[in-house]
Amino acid sequence: MTKLTQQTAALAAAFQALTLIIDIARRGRADPTLVSTCMQGLLKPYQPNVAALYGGVRALRPGMVALRAQLERPKDVELTRYAIALLHLESKLRKQPERLQAITAGLERARRQIEFFGGQPSAGTYAALASLYSEQISDLRPRIMIAGERSHLEQTSNTDLIRALLLAAIRAISLWRDRGGSRLDLLFRRRRMLTAVNELLGHEA
């Protein structure tokens, strides 16, 4: 993958996590296969190929489609607001090594827990990831306030999964940044990124 397609895949992963958060907040559910893809990207060890980390380009298709829609003609104000807020949060985290070390340690504990219980995240895994987000990120600004149906947002299982997916989105943005992504790219190089999205969607693997 080229540098640009690596960036695009990482940003698509972030958008995939965010669309799942919106699904949970609005409808009380999210596709478990897509959630698993996001968790794989969060919890697997470092992999130089971003798409491979998530199980291939095909696994990121929903995120690619959401990213393409935002690049062409942004319509989902909530999705845009969450993405901008996470860009700021990820940037702040980069400057706080103690928080990053704590997050890394927490993710390693989650990996060991998953291995112990057979290889799949459980409700306990999501609860641990949610606590990690609350302890290390939720007090940073801008604070992300998820909008949705109160009945869905009051369910502990939903709030745990939302926070775990926020962690996954931040990890994806970190991967995007590590591969040279910047906010200037989103402002001035949208056409190039849109071309990369369409190329990836045309060569799903």
What does this protein structure show overall?
This protein has 205 residues and is an all-alpha fold. The chain has a single domain, classed as YcfC-like, CATH 1.10.3890.10. 74% of the residues lie in helices and 0% in strands. The chain has eleven helices and no strands. The protein has helices at residues 3-27, 32-43, 50-53, 61-72, 77-94, 97-116, 123-136, 150-153, 156-178, 183-188, 190-202. Helix 1 crosses helix 5 (77-94) and helix 2 (32-43) packs across helix 9.
CATH topology: YcfC-like
Q: Report the β-strand fraction as a percent range.
A: under 5%
Question: What is the arithmetic mean of pLDDT?
Answer: 93
Can you give the helix content as a percent range? over 70%
Question: What ranges have pLDDT less than 50 throughout 5 or more consecutive residues?
Answer: none
Secondary-structure element series = HHHHHHHHHHH
CATH architecture annotation: Orthogonal Bundle
CATH class: Mainly Alpha
Count of DSSP E strands? 0
Q: Structural class of the helix and strand makeup? A: mainly alpha
Radius of gyration: 16 Å
Write the layout of secondary structure elements.
Layout: H1 3-27, H2 32-43, H3 50-53, H4 61-72, H5 77-94, H6 97-116, H7 123-136, H8 150-153, H9 156-178, H10 183-188, H11 190-202
Helix pairs in contact: 1-2, 1-4, 1-5, 1-9, 1-11, 2-9, 4-11, 5-9, 6-7, 7-9
Keywords:
74% helix, single chain, mainly alpha, YcfC-like, 205 residues, globular
